[in-house]
């Protein structure tokens, strides 16, 4: 019984983070399944099946709270679905482990940029509200979908920082649009896994428990991201990206840092992250009216 409750709680926690910051549902859930001995392909398949329900619930909740840009959803989601299907079927045997440190470096740079950008300078007023082009979103979506299917997670960590860094979409709509488009990725990846693996290696009870937890948390996460100040949201996402990709690098063959070194780095990053979030909140309170004006001008550009 305790194990069943644990799966539901993992679904709740993963969806709260994913729905609030636009990433980490797949990574969190897959990590748990791997920890209890599930093989990687089956773990990824289980998570993606659960995500069909959780991403649908999250998308509806984000849409209700006005967090979705549908042009971004389709332009990034359809190529993402193609990449996810390819990654789950014909290409799923290709290991992405060797590329993980390279991607971690790129994402780490993006994370540092976002943390500094939103903490020190606030909203990117010059470009906010300008349309995101398909030639940027399509390859981003395909790559994110492929990484997501082969690694058990990656749609949010790839898509969210890249779109945030463009400076053309406010943070809550980046999170909402990425969460909503993930429904397409979950369907495509699940179909691909069912074609490649069949259903024999998938524990439907685990799917159901993760699904229940995620659906319970989805409306709460969507409401939260609707009310978090954009400066704070951008800083928070940047900090999470830095922490997760630092972890990847420190554990990679490139560095192989010892446990004390890793823990020291994590504590240092957490301290900087907390301080930056506090400063971003302070700046938001000082410049609240200016931020509202920037968002109003962005809405007028987007209309």
TrEMBL record:
Report membrane topology: Multi-pass membrane protein
PANTHER family assigned to the protein according to its UniProt record, in alphabetical order: MEMBRANE TRANSPORTER PROTEIN MJ0441-RELATED (PTHR43701), MEMBRANE TRANSPORTER PROTEIN YTNM-RELATED (PTHR43701:SF12)
| Compartment(s) | Cell membrane; Membrane
Q: Which family does it belong to?
A: Belongs to the 4-toluene sulfonate uptake permease (TSUP) (TC 2.A.102) family.
The terms describing its cellular component in GO are: plasma membrane
- Could you identify this protein by its name? Probable membrane transporter protein
InterPro entries in the record, alphabetically?
TM_pro_TauE-like, TSUP/Inactive_protease-like
UniProt keyword list: Cell membrane, Membrane, Transmembrane, Transmembrane helix
């Amino acid at each position: 019984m305790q194990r069943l409750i644990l799966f539901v709680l993992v679904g709740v926690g993963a969806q709260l983070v994913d729905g609030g910051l636009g990433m980490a549902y797949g990574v969190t859930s897959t990590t748990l399944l791997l920890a209890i001995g599930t093989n990687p392909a089956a773990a990824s398949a289980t998570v993606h099946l659960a995500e069909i329900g959780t991403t649908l619930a999250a998308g509806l909740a984000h849409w209700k709270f006005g967090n979705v840009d549908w042009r971004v959803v389709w332009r990034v989601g359809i190529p993402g679905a193609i990449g996810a299907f390819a990654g789950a079927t014909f290409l799923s045997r290709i290991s992405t482990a060797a590329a993980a440190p390279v991607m971690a470096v790129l994402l780490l740079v993006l994370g540092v940029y976002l943390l500094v950008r939103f903490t020190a300078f606030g909203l990117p007023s010059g470009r906010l509200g300008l349309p995101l082009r398909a030639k940027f979103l399509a390859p981003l979506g395909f790559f994110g979908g492929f990484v997501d299917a082969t690694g058990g997670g990656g749609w949010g960590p790839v898509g969210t920082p890249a779109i945030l860094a463009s400076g053309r979409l406010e943070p809550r709509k980046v999170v909402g649009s990425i969460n909503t488009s993930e429904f397409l990725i979950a369907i495509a990846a699940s179909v691909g896994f069912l074609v490649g693996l069949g259903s024999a290696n998938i524990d439907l009870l685990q799917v159901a428990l993760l699904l229940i937890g995620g659906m319970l948390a989805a409306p709460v996460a969507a409401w939260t991201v609707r009310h978090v100040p954009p400066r704070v949201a951008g800083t928070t996402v940047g900090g999470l990206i830095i922490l997760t990709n630092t972890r990847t690098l420190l554990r990679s063959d490139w560095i192989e840092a010892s446990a004390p070194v890793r823990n020291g780095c994590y504590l240092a990053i957490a301290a900087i992250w907390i301080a930056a979030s506090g400063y971003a909140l302070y700046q938001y309170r000082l410049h609240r009216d200016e931020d509202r004006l920037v968002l109003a001008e962005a809405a007028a550009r987007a209309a």
